[in-house]
Amino acid sequence: MLKLIRTIAAPVLLATTASTATLGLAFVGLPSAAVAAEASSAGEFRGADSSHPASGNVEIVKLKGGGLGVKLKSNFKVRGGPDLRVWLSEARNPRNGRAVRQAGYVDLGRLKSSSGEQIYRIPASANVTDAKSVVIWCRAFGVFFGSATVA
């Protein structure tokens, strides 16, 4: 396959600039999964209701040590609660606890802080392509606090 890529790409690369050639070769030579790992998905939090406000941005990022993570940005805020968790969910644009519970999810761990930048590693076993949102969930009471669509 690499030989075929070189055969097709070589004449095109000779006719382009060095920066374009590098980009073209990276796009042609890498499988789609590797390219997707370099890209990030982003979204904006919204709270479940007036009693559970949430705001700020989130993105899926490639971690320096390898793997992927969920990064809550510096403008992230959520009302505090007991046993708040960060979930990577298959629910697309969930607006309530029922939608979140009906979809699959991966629990990324305890929310470290109710505001500010924080990063949560996504387990290698998780299928990130199925992830549609990041959810803040109260495990103690089974309450939806907010979500951000990332797909």
Automatic annotation (TrEMBL):
Entry superkingdom: Bacteria
Annotated DM13 domain residues: 43-151
Keyword terms, alphabetized: Signal
Coiled coil: none
InterPro entries, sorted: DM13_domain
Keyword Signal: yes
PROSITE patterns in the cross-refs: DM13 (PS51549)
Signal peptide range: 1-36
Keyword Zinc: no
Protein name: DM13 domain-containing protein
